[in-house]
Design goal:
The chain is mainly beta. The chain folds into two domains: 27-217, Galactose-binding domain-like (Jelly Rolls, Sandwich), CATH 2.60.120.260; 231-304, Immunoglobulin-like, CATH 2.60.40.3080. The protein has strands at 27-32, 41-42, 47-50, 53-54, 62-67, 78-84, 98-103, 109-114, 120-131, 140-146, 164-166, 172-178, 190-196, 205-217, 231-234, 241-246, 252-258, 263-269, 273-277, 284-292, 297-304. The protein is elongated.
Length: 307
């Protein structure tokens, strides 16, 4: 359990459950760096920011900051905007850019992270966070989660590794492990943050940046895995040479597509280890898709970094 910056922070411990996991990949599932977020969101509009990267769907993975009934006073002109970001917890070589600022009054606000986990378990949610000050920034963040798109919320038990944390005066990584197997392989998973301490004023805020959800390829014991082929990529990000290590030596079709779904590379291989020259690839996000002779497929994300 962390040492908290602010005195009086709620400190709760959680027991870990050991779910059935197969084909562990340690995959980055969703990522928000907020660098494209450049406009304040004013009442009564709702901030809903799609993921900057997702192996599933950037539109369905989103961060939302909204009022809970009865809502924030209409006299407050703006309840979230952008702020200078940071590289703490950054992935894919993302620059500092911008961060997301959840502003006061926040006593009736909730920050929702829609994080579908379809095909993944052993979930780890991490984000960088900073409070504007000890006198006006929100002091404590209280966690809960939903496995049914927010119809019901779970706020105690062993489902999370911790149920509360503090915002810090410098960007600090907050990590929460989601241990509830009901949250695994779940397209309706939502993580919620509410705030406590310094929340009723019209100044002060918490800053968020580089939100990530990581997980392992998952299937329940007794159910066949979706794919009979696995792949590990190294290095990731890559500059010139990507090594793809697979679990079989069957003939494979290897395809690389960019973030727009355009094929940029294809080849046939029957080796367990495959080398792909990425020197001519434009820096950005890509997927390598493998299909073996039995029709099994796998899709893994990687990043080509600039030289």
């Amino acid at each position: 359990m962390k040492k908290f910056l602010f005195a009086g922070t709620l400190s709760l411990s959680a027991l870990f459950m050991m779910p059935a996991i197969s084909q562990a990949q340690g995959t980055l599932i969703h990522y928000w760096n907020f660098n494209n977020f450049t406009s304040a969101v004013h009442l009564p509009a709702v901030a809903s920011l799609g993921a900057d990267f997702s192996v599933l769907d950037t539109a369905k993975a989103r961060v939302t900051y909204i009022p809970m009934p009865p809502g924030v006073s209409s006299s407050y002109a703006s309840y979230c905007d952008f702020v200078t970001g940071d590289t703490t917890n950054a992935r894919m070589a993302a620059p500092a850019g911008n961060g997301f600022r959840a502003r006061n009054p926040s006593d009736s606000m909730e920050l929702l992270m829609y994080i579908p986990s379809t095909g993944y378990g052993n979930l780890k949610l991490s984000y960088a966070c900073q409070a504007s000050s000890t006198t006006s920034g929100q002091l404590h963040q209280i966690f809960s989660y939903s496995v049914d798109s927010g119809s019901t919320w779970i706020s105690s038990g062993s489902g999370l590794s911790e149920w509360a944390d503090s915002a810090w005066l410098t960007f600090n990584i907050i990590t929460v492990r989601i241990n509830d197997v009901a949250a695994y392989d779940n397209r309706k998973l939502v993580f919620r943050i509410t705030f406590n301490g310094n929340t009723s004023g019209t100044s002060g805020n918490n800053r968020f940046d580089n939100v990530t959800l990581d997980g392992d390829t998952y299937h329940t014991t007794g159910i066949a895995p979706v794919s009979g082929i696995t792949a590990e990529l190294f290095p990731n990000p890559v500059v010139e040479n990507l090594t793809v290590t697979t679990n079989n030596e069957l003939a494979k079709v290897v395809t690389v597509v960019n973030a727009f779904g355009q094929t940029v590379y294809t080849t046939n291989e029957n080796n367990r280890v495959i080398n792909i020259n990425t020197a001519t690839f434009t820096p950005g996000n890509y997927f390598v898709i493998l299909q073996d002779a039995k029709g099994n497929t796998t899709k893994q994300a990687f990043v080509v970094a600039g030289k």
